[in-house]
Amino acid sequence: MASxxxxxxxxxxxxxxxxxxxxxQMVAASKLRRAQAAAEAARPYAERMENVLRNIAxxxxxxxxxxxxxxxxxxxxxxxxxxxxxxxxxxxxxxxxIVRLAREHIAxxxxxxxxxxIMTVGRKGHEQLRRLYxxxxxxxxxxxxxxxxxxxxxxxxxxxxxxxFERGEFDIATLFYSRFKSVIAQVPTAQQIIPPKFEAAAxxxxxxxxxxxxxxxxxxxxxxxxxxxxxxxRALLENNASFYGAQMSAxxxxxxxxxxxxxxxxxxxNRTRQAMITKELIEIISGAEAL
Length: 291
Fold this sequence. Notes:
The chain has helices spanning 4-59, 68-71, 94-111, 123-133, 151-166, 216-290, and strands spanning 78-84, 115-121, 137-141, 172-182, 185-194. By secondary structure, the protein is α/β, with parallel strands linked by helices. The chain has a 5-stranded mixed beta sheet with strand order 3-2-1-4-5, with helices on both faces. It is elongated, with a radius of gyration of 28 Å. The model has no long low-confidence stretch (mean pLDDT 86).
């Protein structure tokens, strides 16, 4: 049985941990507001760009002059998986959920006889994936030193991806990240970005006819690499907001659990102390009566 001193030390340690988790919760809450605003602000731009590319790509369906980034290689043998996670932990199942989705995708592709290559963005994803797929990891990007995520960070990653595609190193690229839904809900998402898969547009009456200048091929040649960078930038912002939301929830739960532990330990300490006092009183009274 632990002594009273050991119990006091344990209670003090739990209180110190509770202070740390409470501080981390407050920091995550303050950073979440900015991260959420940035993620929500990036969505309309990406959606409008997708609409433009969908319209242009629809008019070039089956054309031999379609850019390779749009038409693809005509094969699906080699797949590149871009797995974007956080740089830090203490955020519940945020990183694990993204990696789990990527692992399921890898297992499905390998069962179909496809070759899989992996690019990791974020330290936690790399640490988890290298345990099973170290040989498949062909590129690693860490953002530990980046205080504020910018479009340049995404453009650098997109440049590596498009360069690999132009060299014929893969046929299909899929991006994995966590889409921010709310503070308590983050949705692991897989999105094919090369060649892009456009969702069907909601019907809003007869489709309009557009004349483009310069030609569609020139527009796509400029927009498609930018679209890949935009999707990666959006994924990084969504991940950032999801991370702080998950961390805020995780630290709130940890703070509550620490409070429950402190209460239980305090009750146990008081009962043990009371039992020792009672025992000493009994010994004193018994000794006095013996005299």
